[in-house]
Amino acid sequence: MSTLEIKDLYAAVETKEGRKQILKGVNLVVNSGETHAIMGPNGSGKSTLAYTLAGHPKYEVESGEVLLDGQDLLKMTPDERAKAGLFLAMQYPVEVPGVSMTNFLRTAKTEIDGKAPAIRTWTKELTDAMKQLKMDPKFATRSVNEGFSGGEKKRAEVLQLELLKPKFAILDETDSGLDVDALRIVSEGVNRAKAASDFGILMVTHYTRILKYIKPDIVHVFADGHFVKTGGPELADELEETGYDAFMPDGSSESALA
Amino acid sequence: MTELHTNGPDAGGGVEAPAAADVEMNQYVAARGQVNEDKLRQDDEIIGQFGDYTYGWHDSDAAGEAAKKGIDEQVVRDISADKHEPEWMLEMRLRGYRAFLDKPMPNWGVDLTGFHADDFKYYVKPVGKQAATWEDLPDDIRTTYDRLGIPEAEKSRLVSGVAAQYESEVIYNSIQEDLKKQGVIFVDTDTAVREYPDLVRKYFGTIVPPEDNKFGALNTAAWSGGSFVYVPKGVHVDIPLQAYFRINTPNMGQFERTLIIADEGSYVHYVEGCTAPIYSTDSLHAAIVEIIVEKNARVRYTTVQNWSNNVYNLVTQRAYVREGGTMEWVDGNIGSKATMKYPACILAEPYAKASTMSLGFAGKGQYQDTGAKMIHLAPHTSSTIVAKSISRGGGRSAYRGLVKIVDGAEGSSSNVVCDALLVDDFSRSDTYPHVDVREDDVSMAHEATVSKVSEDQLFYLMSRGLEEKEAMGMIVRGFVEPISRELPMEYALELNRLVELQMEGSVG
């Protein structure tokens, strides 16, 4: 049983127009086995929350705490956070030309586990996971994310999630850019990985459709840098009906931004 | 003459990221720039530690200390006389010497204002006679080679023949019996002048004439050592021929001269690797490599060079390719103070093919001006240039290339790809692609990209558990991979290790 605690987190980013505060007092507790959906309008800062938790250097934490089983994540580099058990499935996974997926996955697994995986079981585990995600075996020899379609990138992220077995998984808009079939395959991968290692999930999403496949226990509405409403799965249905306008600052609306 | 400067992210290159994030990232990167001063200091410390660096030793140097600095006609005559050369070779040297005097210093490419020909030694002769086995070598020289791992390579028969050049004289040379039986000649060029005078005279200086360029002229005047390879018709040398050489004398010019002749339908892969110790005064390496690829023959010439940071590396490499022949240059340039090197291919007859794959790594205080030249003189000739460069610590790398297709070379094609990787914000990369096409029926493609190791790439790999240094190493190795996969295994490993060494201190 693990716990991820976010306490009154404030974070900012430097922009051309100067420093901009994006996270404004985020509080959240996630336990192993729980699935939290974090929903909100574009620009509300939900992806910033995901990247801040994982330690992207662009975002500067102003105050607050993030504890994973009592360990202070904010004092750690991104690789240390990963080793502590945090995984971020990115919305825009980055290409690394010339580095094969096989090499990358084995290196990552070795770093996270602190030892190289046994060759025989590792190969089988990798092959099985790829098969279930309906990935071409040739995929393993391609360069990391290079020339991948949107769907392939998301599958590759979920493949890593399955293989690296974190304590907490942050899924940043994992549903974006996927057609119905791909969404189902990717979601099933997440569910399989969760069934195997019972991690906690923070699922950042704009739309409710992924919630049909990955059932949230708790749904949060995130707006203007913090949580504004929390409820059960029924809150997602409500959002489906009403949209985010009720949670937007005065004078703006989601439809107006679009 | 067109000059295209590509600084910063270019069309078709770079790393995908959302546009807004790009802007924010640039801001972030600018702030990080201040940290770079500290990194430079770290670099200095690392360079200071190079005493422990595997290739950073140097041996006692009784022969080198005695040699005289500077070059004049008498030095040229002395070199020739000492080698008991025929008159025609002395004439060739003198032509080179006169051309060296006549030709101005290049006013383009690397900064040569600190270059003074009189600062260098032009002929150093370390041992009296050529050794036949490793055991015959003097102790200190053998120790040097042991540290380079040559005997191991020899024992495990990774190499089919080893010509190890120590200072100006090739002192060790061996070739396996089966190659000899096939009629393959693999000797140092001095020996070739004595033992195969007709063959050498027929080809020497025909591809790179004495008057070709200033440093080529200097080589012609003062050359010593290098390899001579002749592969008879139809012979396929299926293991790479290798030559190791080193500079071991401060201020000593290294002017090896290599001549490779691949007769009709033959194949040979020649591998040149060199490492040089660190010295406080400037050294000069001005080599010439001439290659003749006869009809339907194929030659691959691979170089992995790691000169110390005070070496001027000014090399002329050129191949003449006949009908249906194939020439491949694979070139890794790491280290040196300044490198000017543009492997060239003259595609003289129909269906000749050529490719150049090169990697330049410019670290602090280094300027790698490298590229390729492809001259299409006949119909249906094709060429490919893949040039990759890495710049870091304020280093500067440039691709300088020429593709020339003459009138009448119909159906010819050329494809040029230049990829530059900038590791930080204060290094530099330039592209100077010269194209001269006088024929309509040709296909030409040129693609140039400049990319930066982005914070997003580092973050992505780090978020998967890799430490920053390891993540940076993985990105750079990935960039180099298209070149390193072309190398024999042991050289690929060496190249990766050299690149990693060069990357030390690049992350804060």
Provide an overview of this structure.
The complex is a heterodimer of chains A (258) and B (508). By secondary structure, chain A is an alpha/beta fold. Chain A has a single domain (3-257), classed as P-loop containing nucleotide triphosphate hydrolases (Rossmann fold), CATH 3.40.50. Chain A is built from eight helices and twelve strands. A six-stranded mixed beta sheet of chain A has the order 6-9-10-3-11-12, with helices on both faces. Chain A has a four-stranded antiparallel beta sheet with strand order 2-1-4-5. The radius of gyration of chain A is 18 Å and the shape is globular. The mean pLDDT of chain A is 92. Chain B is an alpha/beta fold and 508 residues long. Chain B has one domain (23-458). Chain B has helices at residues 19-33, 36-48, 62-66, 73-82, 87-102, 139-148, 150-155, 177-181, 189-195, 197-203, 214-222, 455-462, 468-484, 489-503; strands at residues 161-166, 169-175, 185-188, 227-231, 241-246, 253-254, 257-262, 267-275, 283-285, 288-293, 298-307, 311-321, 326-335, 338-341, 344-347, 353-362, 367-376, 382-391, 396-405, 412-422, 428-437, 442-452. In chain B, strands 3, 4, 6, 7, 9, 10, 12, 14, 15, 17, 19 and 21 form a twelve-stranded mixed beta sheet that branches. In chain B, helix 5 (87-102) packs antiparallel against helix 11, helix 12 (455-462) crosses helix 13 (468-484) and helix 13 packs antiparallel against helix 14. The radius of gyration of chain B is 23 Å and the shape is globular. Chains A and B meet through strand 1, helix 2, strand 7, helix 3 and strand 8 of A and helix 1, helix 12 and helix 13 of B. Chain A: Pfam families: ABC_tran (PF00005). Chain A: Keywords: ATP-binding, Nucleotide-binding.
